[in-house]
DNA sequence: GATGAATGAGGGTTCATTCAT
DNA sequence: GATGAATGAACCCTCATTCAT
């Protein structure tokens, strides 16, 4: 790729990258990272094998590109800060809804990315630093301020935040493993989860 | 494999299978399913490559064998039914502890197995039918009986059970992705989670 | 390339060719012919990959161009005829010095060119006809006239000339293979070789 | 390859290696190292591509194997020490004859090996340490003892020995580049060279 | 003429699987 | 049944060359 800052060039380059990432999304989701061949991606993108290497250093870089795009997409979504404007419960529902929607809308993408991430340390590092850690940090920060405002109980911010985030991730994986209930009732999840998280399952005394 | 029902034969066959699965456990945990070669497994088991094919149809079948064994191991562990003997809260703590221990003790195994499962439909089916569905069914059943006994609130058994199971799975994956908090504080998790699940995070009125 | 005989055109074309050959010299010397890519040459020349194909039919043609230029450069150097002006011994020293300097100054170039020449018949033919044969013929001619003048013994002109030329080439290759003595003592070589060639190693009777 | 010391195994392994090296000799000589494909070698050897990798780590290792075999073959040939038994001149003739025969008999092999050696540092190192340096050291040793015995003049052992060895190598390369005289008159070379080396070309006073 | 993105054949290498011993 | 050498399909990647702009 040229070093040129030519905006038209940049546009073309981005278009091609997008084209390749779109194809990769499809192919990885269908076959998984390992079983998908570079040729598969190229064919799906309607280009030659070699062309991919003009835009990505290697097959793994394509996956990283996918990860980054996932990340960027997510960045554009709602932030915790907005939570201050609503009551805590409504915010939790809205947050979980947004979160679940994002993660389930990209479920097949996650199916492609997760396996490689579990196995590939470099990829894992990227995901951990760029996505997980900021998200958890933001969550802890928000959680902490809610505690200070007396809106929620002070249980154990790090573990609670991780548990809630983990629940969302775990539900996705259940779904990816073939559980149908979860995705079928995706819309109900935010409220059920919020009830669970806020009130728990103990019976009213 | 012969059709003979000779019990000595069967014993020998089982011994070899165990030997191979032990090796596979180690190798898959170290390298992941894809990076592990049949030769790796054979060497670790102290046998020849070809011998593996006497006991397993192919490399994937070895993973299936591992999954089945994981399943059996798990079956031998504490059951929900035992829950009836304790108060609900203590049971939940005990159950989560056992569950988390099992899953975190086999974390590296899960790292090897999960990716393949997410990508391989056949494997997924096995896991879904043999492990997830029975577990969830058992959970729902127990949950239901607890509701009937007035021990817990009737929120939405299918979703709540899946959420709790999902939380455990999600925490494992967080951990596998590099989060250190979770495994470092593994011992505290059962109680924190139980508090969350039973009481929620809402402040005392 | 156009068929035009326009002298300005020709000048421009030559300038470009020179630019490319200069770049190729550098790149081939650094990486060798095979490892050097057309892109390497283009970047070093500050032009685009494709432009090279306007001036050279293919990568090998660039090497041929290099060879021709090497040849021309060499032609401009001292000639055997000049030898007539000096005494034979001094001329031999001067000739070997010039020869060794030329060949060792272009050692890395030779490292790049020789391998391809050994393997590529077309290239070999060019080198043989354009460089080796004229040089040997010139050498034989000079040698013959020295014999006639009684300056040297009549041993076997064709073989002796080839042996002397071969010695220079052989020393270069020794050096290219990693022998350090030769290039370290390059300056002493002309005299040592001349002594060897003229007087031999037999002890004085 | 097994670690077993089983002599039958070892025999089979050696047979296969020989089979592969023979094929490689042929293919490399015909096409050169780079243009020769592993598939070419395999086909010529009558085996599958992959089989080569049971016996050699990679394509370069095959070349190294060739080099080693060349080396071993050479070891079996006449040694300098034997020179003591003859007069110096006869020994030089015999030595050069043996040397030239060896190098010209394996000319096509050299054509395959040399180019890669010039370009591949690892290979070069092997050749330098295993073949060139011992040969030169032996030569210098012999030359020194001849000086001490007053059989030859003391000119500059390191450079003279290298020059003589270089001449042989240089003549080979001339020949490989297409000069026909040298190989056609191979038989005459030892004597001509010996005359040159011992007596030089200066006219009798 | 210059560009450089696109091409796609081709290469080295890996490894699951087979099968003669 | 056990062995492990042999197989060969398949993969990722490189790079000389082309050609639309």
UniProtKB/TrEMBL annotation, chains A, B, C, D:
Pfam families: TetR_N. Keywords: DNA-binding. Residues 37-56 bind DNA. GO terms for molecular function: DNA-binding transcription factor activity; transcription cis-regulatory region binding. PROSITE patterns: HTH_TETR_1 (PS01081), HTH_TETR_2 (PS50977). Residues 14-74 form the HTH tetR-type domain. The keyword NADP does not apply. It comes from the Bacteria. This is TetR family transcriptional regulator. It comes from Reticulibacter mediterranei.
